[in-house]
Design goal:
Number of strands of chain B: 10
Protein name (chain A): ABC transporter permease protein HI_0355
Low-confidence stretches of chain B: 3-8
Largest sheet of chain A: none
CATH topology of chain A: MetI-like fold
Distance between the termini of chain A: 13 Å
Subcellular location (chain A): Cell membrane
Distance between the termini of chain B: 48 Å
CATH superfamily of the largest domain in chain B: P-loop containing nucleotide triphosphate hydrolases
Helix content of chain B: 25-40%
Membrane topology (chain A): Multi-pass membrane protein
Number of helices of chain B: 8
Helix content of chain A: over 70%
Number of helices of chain A: 10
GO cellular component, one term (chain A): plasma membrane
Largest interface: A-B, 24 and 29 residues
Shape of chain B: globular
Structural class of chain B: alpha/beta
Radius of gyration of chain B: 18 Å
Order of helices and strands of chain B: EEEHEEHHHHEHEHEEEH
Number of strands of chain A: 0
Main location (chain A): membrane
Structural class of chain A: mainly alpha
Oligomer: heterodimer
Mean pLDDT of chain B: 90
Strand content of chain B: 15-25%
Radius of gyration of chain A: 22 Å
CATH class of the largest domain in chain B: Alpha Beta
Bound molecules: adenosine-5'-triphosphate, magnesium ion
Chain lengths: ~260, ~260
């Protein structure tokens, strides 16, 4: 089972990639749209090669923003969840704040963040961190609160302090819940970074796309989009792999499910 | 390694007075009194769902310090030496409650970790000796998901014995193992817990008669405890001990009555 799945993973990715290319080419031929609306794959690949250096530079910046945003957002989210569960007053004050932070459309914050933190990395990192903060906090605090009461009884018989049972029982028990929060975060963090770049930036793939769009370099815009997608997908699978490695006790659903 | 500290352990008796436990509209038991005699085994039998586990948990909850609310019932739990029960009780629940992210050895050592005590060589040695005593030496490094039900239960038993407490509460500790292993584990527990104050919940009359000094049958709703049966001689008694055989009929009669 394991080997056949390991073989199929990359093979499937290639098949999906080729399928999308074919569909794209077919769409271009069927609609006969001009290249400045929908360029064909070959044109985009050419743009990719021609602008490789520039795309690479911008991609590195966007990737940095995403990774930093992820790190900061996850750290803040996990810390808030621990605080909420460990201290009752924290729950009373933080919880409403959290809900409000979600009720306000976070993208509306982007111009403010740029205003406050400038055109550089900081505002994009902040944007990514802000949009992943809530899913991480919610998932982890949920997991922390749902620890098996039997375990807590056991901890009671072992004279565990609240802090000790939080550290040795509830936190590890909530790691799988945190992991699903982190997966969501990984999927949405690129959105935060790119939105930040759209609002105001002088570098990054989002900036490059806007810039190319304004100059009608649609093939370049598509090339940047392609790389952005590749980064997002690669990041997601890398994080997913890492999380599974970190939690080997977490049962996988059976491979027969699909 | 498995130092028998029975001689040095000061035994303590634990009295539950006015134990009451209600879930929704159902009152499992009300004003129930039970004294766990110092240094002896008290066995508790009764139909499924009568409230045995709830009674054990009521005793355990009494060790909760102020501010930790989630309470299962009310009642006074007091030790005859006037000191609190907290810090002197080991608990083996009906479910094994092994932590899935820890190996068997680390599960056995959990108490030390939770108390912030060092996991040093002597502690590790004692854990390994207990793991071997329950026949799990080959699985000491495995995580619970790689164990069978009976193996998990044996790991939980090792963890309970490792705690080395004067009062031990055990909820069906040998229910998931085969008959021969069960007898062996009963012997082990009886030896290692000699001189401790033990409350053992079980569905197995033979087990109660082998291990118990006093045997209670819990029956009715709200549940009551009848007069205890007194088993003669020192546990662990042989399975064909005449005293055991003589009481078996009486115990089964009481259990049958509890079911009607
Ligand atoms: N947390 C709970 N909430 C609601 N009802 C509960 C709870 N815990 C136990 N009960 C109910 O209390 C009753 C007694 O449960 P308990 O676990 O004490 O039985 P038991 O005597 O240990 O049974 P068994 O021999 O099957 O283990 C059951 O009817 C159960 O449904
Ligand atoms: Mg029970």
């Amino acid at each position: 089972m394991m080997t056949s799945r390991a073989l199929h993973g990359p093979a499937r990715a290639v098949v999906i990639g080729l399928g999308l290319l074919v569909a794209w080419q077919a769409l271009v031929m069927a609609t006969a749209l001009p290249p400045y609306i929908l360029p064909d794959p070959l044109r985009v690949m050419t743009a990719l090669v021609v602008h490789a250096a520039s795309i690479g530079r911008h991609a590195a910046i966007t990737l940095t923003e995403i990774v930093l945003g992820l790190g900061i957002g996850i750290a803040l989210g996990a810390a808030s969840a621990l605080l909420i569960v460990a201290f009752r007053p924290a729950r009373r004050w933080l919880l409403p704040l959290l809900v409000v932070s979600q009720a306000v459309p976070v993208f509306a914050l982007a111009p403010l963040l740029v205003l406050w933190l400038g055109y550089g990395l900081a505002s994009k990192v902040a944007m990514a961190a802000v949009i992943i903060y809530f899913p991480v906090t919610a998932a982890f605090s949920d997991g922390l609160r749902r620890a098996d009461p039997g375990w807590l009884d056991l901890a009671l018989s072992m004279d565990a302090s609240r802090l000790a049972s939080l550290r040795h029982i509830r936190a590890p028990a909530a790691l799988p819940a945190l992991a699903s929060g982190v997966r969501v975060a990984t999927a949405v963090a690129p959105i935060g970074a790119v939105v930040g770049e759209w609002v105001g930036a002088s570098a990054g793939l989002g900036y490059l796309m806007l810039h190319a769009n304004a100059r009608m370099q649609i093939d370049l815009m598509f090339a940047a989009l392609l790389i952005l997608g590749a980064i997002a997908v690669a990041l997601y699978f890398a994080v997913d792999r890492l999380l599974k490695r970190l939690m080997p006790w977490q049962p996988e659903s059976s491979p027969a499910e699909d | 390694m498995l130092v028998d500290r029975a001689a040095t352990a000061v035994s303590v008796s634990v009295a539950i007075v006015g134990g009451t436990c209600t879930f929704g509209k159902a009152t499992l038991f009300r004003d129930l009194d039970l004294t766990l005699a110092a240094g002896s085994w008290t066995c508790l039998l009764g139909p499924s769902g009568i409230g045995k586990t709830s009674l054990i948990r009521l005793i355990l909850e009494s060790t909760r310090i102020r501010g930790q609310t989630r309470a299962i019932g009310t009642g006074v739990v007091a030790c005859d030496d006037g000191h609190p029960l907290r810090g002197r009780v080991a608990y083996m629940a009906q479910r094994d409650l092994l932590l899935p992210w820890l190996t068997v050895r680390d599960n056995v050592l959990l108490g030390r970790r939770l108390r912030g005590e060092a996991i040093d060589a002597p502690a590790r040695g004692r854990a390994d000796a207990l793991i071997e005593a329950v026949g799990m030496q080959d699985a000491a490094g495995l995580r619970p998901d790689a164990l069978s039900g009976g193996m998990r239960q044996r790991a939980a038993l090792a963890r309970t014995l490792f705690e080395d407490r004067p009062v031990v509460l055990m909820d069906e500790p040998f229910s998931a193992v085969d008959a021969i292993t069960r007898v062996r584990l009963q012997d082990l527990a009886a030896t290692l817990l000699r001189g401790r104050t033990v409350l053992l919940v079980t569905h197995d009359p033979l087990e109660a008669l082998r291990l118990g000094h006093r045997i209670f049958v819990m029956a009715g709703r709200p549940a009551r405890l009848g007069e205890p049966l007194h088993a003669p001689g020192n546990p662990p008694r042989p399975v064909d001990d005449p005293g055991v055989l003589a009481l078996q009929g009486e115990l089964l009669r009481r259990l049958a009555a509890a079911h009607s």
